[in-house]
């Protein structure tokens, strides 16, 4: 499997056609699972890790669990390739940075992914475009049920699923919704929204999970509680909160369109101008400019461009994608030049007037 | 005479085709003269000022001094129109801000201009495109000689021409060269060049003369000495110094092209991107972006655009020009929107790729 073939495509979560796709990029549900009879990951020998990797991938294959599956042995991949997989959200940063036998098995549509020997023995992940919490949960639950017919997961009747980190014990469930909130940032309401989110015992993170900074007004909102509630109860808080954040963002966009039309048009079109013309562009600047363009698109201020252009630019200008497409490592300066070239090449054929 | 008709045209000094036009925008020579038998301007009554205005304009007309002449009574113009004339360098900021009977008489090509009742009774000015110190001086001297056949100028055999401000006594001559020095600014060599200029007893000023800031890397270099030397001696220092500054700027551009190609291309093309797309743009930002585009043009990095496009954008986006073209006063915010609209309209039909 050549990652290069993937570089020009968009996973399902970036197709931009899900519910509420103007504000919600994607929904992700993951379940943390560990195999009974083995210590947690940190105490596993390499042989045991390899054993788990084999058992999980074999179960997946026997169950015909995943459509058009792709299995990648991460111990045998380059740093560049792992970065590429992180950018597509097919693996976590932790799995990329890990050591020893570990792997990822994902579907051709990139909707489903099984991370093997991440923080837990197994992370079952479903990513979907737009706001699809229930659908993603059903799909992840289904994968989990089917895997449990072949694998014995560590489970306590008192605590629920046992996990390497206590914050995941119980359901092992984390659902997160990636939102694009530029108008709340511009109107300086985002901090208030974060406070409200924290009161609901939900967490806000940047684009690539824990410890990453929010770039270009993209935020992940997810549950913190995994224990003492059913999966449905956990998801309910998120399902009730996200639509309210969407409403705030919509209201802020309406206010901007009404009261700051020139300011907002200027911001959108300057971003278009810079993206179409710059000769070097950092990852952070590209994300921030694409954020403005995405907002412009969904506010009906840009014609000739669709959300898939933006998503192609967005994912394609990440460092790993640039390097995989280029076919080798690039220095940060070379990446900035390559990124600008890539963005220009995509926008060249777009009639934006 | 409708100033609006001028708004879309370029005076000779902005035609961009003079010698050394990659770095020298224009050359200006002015002679300060006062009428014998009258006090200096500050002590003149309005009747005396009107008298001088009539005598000078009549002399000009009888001598058929100026081709396609245009006489503007500045006491009868709006602030907006005077600002427009300042932006075209047809009148000085001092004449614009003055009071009482005062006027300007200029030629259709805008090469020659007689300012009446500025700081002195008469300022004879010649503006030419590119580096043309000798030509401008010859032309100004010729105007002066011909006027002297009709008018009696205040002259002391010991001091030379008498002027309101002692810094102009003697020849009454100021020659200034407007230079575009972006590469010296980028490579941080401009201060060193300024120090060298000061050692030559030359002065450096911004775009619109004394007390104005240099905008967009445009600088006026002029003589400070007017007394105790002949006109030719005064001009010689300038004539020897300007080519050396040009050489420094050329060398700095070559260094940039060789050592910072991406940086410089990025700067040029970002400027193009912003100018073609922004929805509001301040005068300072426009000047600074046009400076980058002008440098790009003369460094051979831009096709499809010529220096007249840039000069049209440059002069046309000045506040007075925007308002005269619009047909009335605009608030600063409205001007920023109008400026962006104007710049886009000029660049729309330019194929820059």
Which tags fit this structure?
2 domains, 10 strands, Creatine Kinase, Chain A, domain 2, eight-stranded antiparallel β-sheet, globular, two-stranded antiparallel sheet, 13 helices, 46% helix, homodimer, alpha+beta, 353 residues
What does this structure look like?
2 copies of one chain form a homodimer. Chain A folds into 2 domains: 3-253, Creatine Kinase, Chain A, domain 2, CATH 3.30.590; 260-352, no CATH class. The first copy, chain A, contains 13 helices and 10 strands. With 353 residues, chain A is α+β, with helices and mostly antiparallel strands. The first copy, chain A, has helices at residues 3-7, 46-62, 79-87, 93-97, 133-148, 182-186, 190-199, 231-259, 261-277, 283-298, 307-316, 319-326, 332-348, and strands spanning 24-33, 70-73, 103-106, 112-116, 122-129, 155-156, 160-161, 173-180, 202-205, 218-223. The model of chain A has no long low-confidence stretch (mean pLDDT 93). Chain A binds chain B through residues 262-263, 265-266, 269-270, 272-280, 333, 337, 340, and chain B through 262-263, 265-266, 269-270, 272-280, 337, 340.
State the oligomer: homodimer
Largest interface (C-beta under 8 Å): A-B, 18 and 17 residues
CATH topology of the largest domain in chain A: Creatine Kinase, Chain A, domain 2
**Count of spatially separate domains of chain A:** 2
Helix percentage of chain A: 40-55%
Percent strand of chain A:
15-25%
Spell out the helices and strands of chain A N to C: HEHEHHEEEHEEEHHEEHHHHHH
CATH architecture of the largest domain in chain A: 2-Layer Sandwich
Query: What composes the largest sheet of chain A?
Result: 8 strands, antiparallel
Counting helices, strands and paired strands, the structural category of chain A is alpha+beta
> What's the number of extended β-strand segments of chain A?
10
| Dominant shape of chain A | globular
- Rg of chain A over CA atoms, rounded to whole Å, is 21 Å
Indicate the mean pLDDT of chain A.
93
CATH superfamily (homologous) name of the largest domain in chain A: Glutamine synthetase/guanido kinase, catalytic domain
Distance N to C terminus of chain A: 40 Å
Supply the CATH class of the largest domain in chain A: Alpha Beta
